[in-house]
Specification:
Largest sheet of chain A: 3 strands, antiparallel
Helix content of chain A: 55-70%
Largest sheet of chain C: 5 strands, antiparallel
Strand order of the largest sheet of chain C: 3-4-5-6-11
Radius of gyration of chain A: 30 Å
Chains: A mainly alpha (514), B mainly alpha (296), C alpha+beta (312)
Shape of chain C: flat
Oligomer: heterotrimer
Chain lengths: 514, 296, 312
């Protein structure tokens, strides 16, 4: 901004130079002189975003990640990543005088003694749960609509990597307070590392700086959690969005929507208003959750101590499927040739997630290979059009959900007053059956949906009119004003012949559904 | 009208019902655990293990002193009443001599009550577990007691008159206790079964650890000292002061958890939190997205 | 409201009175009033957040004002965009990203021909440089990893239990033979380690009194359970959680993490769940003063399985 006093002449000169768009036009000129932004900026502001609601799911993830960054920075001001033992003194009496690590003490302190500290901590945790959840939902949308197909395989790969990193970083952050529940999780993570054949012991010792628990793990988790993984996530998010802009959005087929165009709203002002509003809404919902729903009350759990344990400790929801897999896997350990391979840990906790995520990475290539479809696709599939892909996706989701439920066998047994052992056996059966039940049911539903002509769309009635000559003519009624876009697809050739209804003998006009 | 195939309709209905019932259950759980007031007074850490343990000739503990817990023998004046109550309520299973030998023809095996100590007898009766509603159940659940505390004491008095034994009925002085020590001991000794939030959970086979939410202080002490059912007994390994600390922590904090962060979600931990995050968080945001965008 | 108004059009060159630029709201004034109301409520909430922060209000008040403010402002902005901005729909051409064959060939030619002319002419240099980089990669990896932690060596094979170690509880009090009644359990450590990380994590042991008389859990362990005291490692053989859950009537130790069940009367053999091996048993004896002490260290590594762990 220019100095006000004595600047009238230059001001006027500038205004004249700016032309009809005034000061903003002047700013554009100055910027374009230096950066050449006019053309690209205009293209960017004109960029068309499809209006379908499911395209906003990824934005939940993006904006909850922003909330994570902001609240996370706040937390780093007060959190001390240290395993050094201190005596806690503070307002929460049951901890007063207990020997705890600095990590734990500082987390309790920032919850109780820092202004808005508890709110920020809870928002951070809720944002994390929502972040991973939104990633999964977004990924499901992309999968079931075939948005990962050529040319977008690379972006799918980046997305799967983002999910992996988000889960990993969520676990690291969950571990940082060093409370009883998360400490048990670290203990389990250490044992899982130990279980890897040949290199496991070395891996565990290098990651933890020695035998469990050691004092190195909290600072190491901290730097991974607040610097290294967020940086990678940030970079990949940037790449994800750059690819999105470069390749333009996919869209559902519809009137005027073709492979060679994008239909929707422009970046400025419509999409910008909606998406900025959505950013506010996402942060607002997270803040409200942080206000009213308590999450991870570590003061009730107490500090971690390797000899203490609580029953019914569970990881955050996105790790639940691993916990469930560990619970239901039988005790198959290989011992021989002077070595032990703890398959009861390696298979459910290392090999199985490896297969699941490997399958996710490989899916675009697998599908290309199976279908022989190497064409470029910008129009999306409806899930029911691709029953096999949809059924496969649902089968995997069913398996993971069953494993997630299996991580609560004790809660189920307690709630329904069943034997814990019975519930566990039932979950073993359910987990194995779930994909095989989910696949055919989904397949059948997709087929049924294909068979229903125009399902989900409003019908326009036909008027059957008798002319003066006594001839019957079917005339479509005028559409409802809102319905113009929702034209129905042509009627498919019937697969079976319907019994004709008895002809109405009444003369005049009859309305039938098309 | 949208016409959907029947299978799709059924599955949609199932999904909708699941989503609707989950939060309801959570709300029901949350309503039970109201946020407690925040205490701000502070106490010094208690002195370590100052109880005066007295042992008998065979090394068994007969007394801990009464600084932290007063152990009260059931009044011998109640013996007569106790015998009558016993014959009416207990003798059909445990036998007329309280030795676990029931009347001929009764099916099942029943514990011998002689020598268990008044605290054991008292605990089972005042917690409503005895007389048992279903003697064949794997584990008797806590119920509304059929007999009053005075009647329970009378029965304990009669059984104690057959063979005097320990422990007596405890009366912990929780005002003197140190809740910090109590929390540490709770995490080490109790949380493995009752969970760190004290909600209890299902254990091996059909057994379960009961919730600690609504249990009077003296009954918590009785359970610790006598080890009812599958619960281990804590005798010489916990001093009276330590028991007192645990009882104080349970009655003050487990039963009145401090939830400064909002609703406690039934103190159910990450499972409930994940449910809220997915259904309320992601679900609500997806609804907003559904409003923002077009639907076709 | 004709059909043409809903056909997608390109943004460029649109006339100012084109129906695509009209708001989609039927009665914009009402919508505007509603949005204004949302903004006012949002502003009030945000201002309330400032005030609540100033007076250090309770977390839920802070969160409610902050969240309410953001949510109301957001909903208003969304409604503005949805109802009062150009309704569209607009269309944008999608040009193929791929270049024509000539361009591709030119790039390939640069990579192959120019590269080959340089590298193939000096194969020795290329090989040496590649070798140097490769060795650097390997060499850099190992010291980097190696400096992160010590080598495992025998760490996982031993605990701090020694011949004659006293059993002490978490306060350091020695366990006397009269301390535990039948059906009691206590977590014990070798004396001197009860306050160390390693003592907590590796040496932790559960001491259970099964009877008043010498108890034999397995063949060859005739003297390990004096006066009914038996001691097992508290580390689950599945994932190393503390097996602190003792059911005295079922005589089971249950792991609270994944519900492995160990029969304490039978050498802690796993009877259910994912744990593959029994909990190692600590041989005990009672000294002349009546204190419980260890005969020796565990006869096998405690805790979860790992590659170097031999059979047994």
């Amino acid at each position: 901004m220019s100095d006000v006093a004595g600047a009238t002449t230059t001001k006027r000169a500038r205004r004249q130079g700016a032309g009809r768009y005034g000061r903003l036009g002047q700013v554009v000129n100055e910027l374009d002189d230096r950066l050449g932004v006019a053309k690209g900026g205009r293209t960017f502001l004109d960029k068309i975003f499809p209006d379908h609601w499911s395209f906003m799911l990824g934005e939940i993830a993006l904006y909850s990640f922003l909330v994570l960054l902001v609240t996370g920075v706040f937390l780093t001001f007060y959190y001390i990543p240290s395993s050094a033992l201190v005596t806690y003194h503070g307002p929460y009496l049951p901890l007063d005088g207990q020997r705890v690590t600095q990590a734990y003490a500082s987390t309790v302190n920032l919850s109780f003694s820092v202004r808005a500290g508890l709110l920020m901590r809870q928002m951070h945790h809720w944002a994390c749960d929502i972040f991973v959840g939104a990633l999964v939902v977004h990924m499901a949308r992309v999968f079931f609509t075939g948005a990962f197909r050529k040319p977008r395989e690379l972006n799918w790969t980046i997305g799967v990597t983002l999910l992996t990193l988000a889960i990993a970083n969520g676990f690291l952050g969950y571990s940082l307070p060093d409370d009883l529940v998360s400490g048990t999780g670290i203990r389990i993570a250490y044992s899982i590392m130990l279980s890897i054949p040949v290199v496991g012991t070395y891996l565990a010792f290098f990651v933890f700086g020695g035998n469990f628990p050691g004092t190195a793990i909290i600072p190491r988790f901290f730097i991974l959690h607040v610097l290294i993984i967020p940086l990678v996530i940030l970079g990949l998010v940037g790449a994800h969005l750059t690819l999105l802009v470069r390749q333009k959005h996919t869209q559902f087929p519809g009137p005027g929507r073709e492979e060679n165009n994008v239909v929707g709203s422009p970046m400025f002002p419509v999409f910008m208003a909606k998406t900025t509003g959505y950013l506010f809404a996402v942060s607002g919902v997270i803040a409200l959750l942080g206000a009213f729903a308590q999450i991870n009350p570590i003061w009730q759990f107490g500090p971690y101590d390797a000899a203490r344990i609580s029953y019914a400790v569970q990881p955050d929801w996105y790790m639940g499927f691993l916990d469930g897999a560990l619970r239901i896997f039988p005790s198959w350990s290989f011992m021989g040739f002077g070595h032990t391979i703890p398959f009861e840990v390696t298979i459910p906790a290392v090999i199985f997630p490896g297969i699941v995520f490997g399958l996710a990475y490989a899916w675009p290539a697998l599908e290309r290979r199976v279908t022989g479809d190497h064409a470029i696709h910008h129009l999306l599939d409806r899930p029911s059009w691709r029953p096999k892909r949809t059924a496969a996706g649902v089968a995997v989701l069913a398996l993971l959900s069953a494993l997630f439920i299996a991580s609560s066998t004790d809660v189920i047994a307690n709630f329904f007053h069943l034997s814990l052992n019975t519930v566990l056996w039932a979950m073993r059966v359910i987990v194995i059956l779930s994909p095989f039940v989910a696949y055919p049911i989904t397949y059948k539903i997709c087929k049924e949906l294909q068979g229903v002509h125009g399902a989900g769309k409003r019908k326009t009635p036909n008027l059957v009119v008798r002319t003066d000559e006594g001839e019957y003519v079917a005339e479509p009624t005028p559409a409802y004003p809102e319905d113009v876009l929702d034209e129905l697809e042509p009627t498919p050739v019937p697969t079976y012949i319907e019994q004709p209804e008895a002809e109405s003998t009444a003369p005049g006009v009859r309305v039938v559904e098309r | 009208m949208v016409r959907r195939p029947p299978l799709a309709r059924v599955s949609l209905a199932a999904v909708a019902a699941t989503l609707a019932l989950g939060p309801l259950a959570l709300l029901a759980g949350a309503a039970g655990a109201a946020p407690g007031p925040f205490q701000t007074t502070r106490r010094d850490a208690g002195t370590p293990n100052s109880s005066q343990v007295t042992r008998n000739a065979s090394g068994q503990i007969v007394s801990y002193g009464d600084k932290w817990i007063t152990y009260r023998a059931p009044s011998s004046a109640l013996t007569q009443l106790g015998q009558a109550l016993y014959m009416e309520n207990c003798a059909s299973c445990h036998g007329t001599m309280a030795d676990g030998v029931p009347a001929p023809g009764t099916v099942g095996a029943y514990p011998n009550l002689v020598g268990l100590g008044p605290a054991t007898i008292d605990f089972w009766i005042v917690s409503g577990r005895m007389p048992a509603a279903d003697p064949t159940a794997v584990q008797a659940p806590r119920r509304q007691p059929r007999l009053t505390p005075a009647q329970a004491e009378a029965i304990a008095a009669w059984i104690n008159s057959i063979l005097p034994s320990y422990p007596y009925i405890p009366d912990p002085h929780v005002k003197r206790a140190n809740v910090a020590t109590g929390m540490a001991l709770f995490a080490l000794n109790c949380a493995a079964c009752h969970t760190i939030e004290g909600d209890g959970d299902a254990l091996a086979y059909a057994t379960f650890a009961p919730s600690l939410r609504h249990i009077p202080a003296y009954q918590v002490a009785e359970a610790i000292r006598t080890g009812p059912g599958n619960m281990p007994r804590f005798t010489g390994n916990l001093s009276d002061q330590q028991v007192d600390d645990i009882v104080a922590y349970v009655t003050k904090y487990i039963q009145h958890p401090e939830n400064p962060g909002g609703f406690g979600l039934g103190q159910l931990g990450p499972v409930a939190e994940g449910f809220v995050a997915l259904v309320i968080g992601v679900g609500l945001l997806a609804l907003i997205a559904y409003w923002i965008g077009e639907r076709a | 409201m004709s059909d043409e108004s809903r056909t997608p059009v390109a943004l460029a060159g649109l006339r100012a009175d084109d129906p695509h630029l009209e708001p989609s709201a039927r009665n914009p004034h009402v919508v505007e009033a509603v949005i204004a109301a949302l903004f006012v409520v949002g502003m009030a909430c945000v201002a309330g957040f400032g005030a609540a922060y100033w007076v250090n209000a309770k977390p839920w008040i802070l969160g409610a004002t902050l969240g309410g403010g953001l949510l109301f402002l957001g909903l208003g902005l969304i409604a503005w965009g949805k109802y009062l901005m150009p309704r569209g729909p607009f269309v944008e051409e999608r040009h193929p990203l791929a270049n024509d064959a000539a361009e591709r060939e030119a790039l390939a030619a640069v990579l192959v021909d120019r590269g080959a002319s340089v590298v193939k002419r000096r194969p020795l240099l290329g090989g040496l440089l590649g070798g140097g980089m490769g060795i650097f990669g390997i060499v850099a990896l190992f010291p980097l990893l190696r400096s992160l932690g010590p080598l495992p060596k025998g760490t996982l094979f031993h605990t701090d239990w020694r011949k004659g170690s006293y059993l002490v509880d978490q306060t350091g009090r020695r366990i006397h033979e009269g301390d535990l009644a039948v059906g009691s359990i206590v977590t014990v450590f070798p004396e001197g380690t009860e306050n160390t990380d390693r003592g907590q994590a590796v040496d932790q042991t559960v001491l259970i009194r099964l009877s008043n008389f010498n108890y034999v859990t397995q063949k060859g362990r005739a003297t390990w359970g004096p006066k009914g005291y038996v001691a097992y490692s508290k580390l689950c053989t599945h994932l190393g959680c503390p097996v602190g859950l003792y059911e005295q009537q079922l005589q089971l130790l249950v792991c609270p993490c994944h519900q492995s069940m160990f029969n304490v009367t039978d050498g802690a053999i796993p009877t259910f769940g994912p744990a593959p091996r029994p909990l190692p048993q600590l041989p005990l004896y009672i000294d002349a003063q009546g204190y419980l002490r260890a005969q020796a260290d565990y006869d096998q590594p405690v805790g979860p399985g790992f590659w170097e762990r031999g059979r047994s």
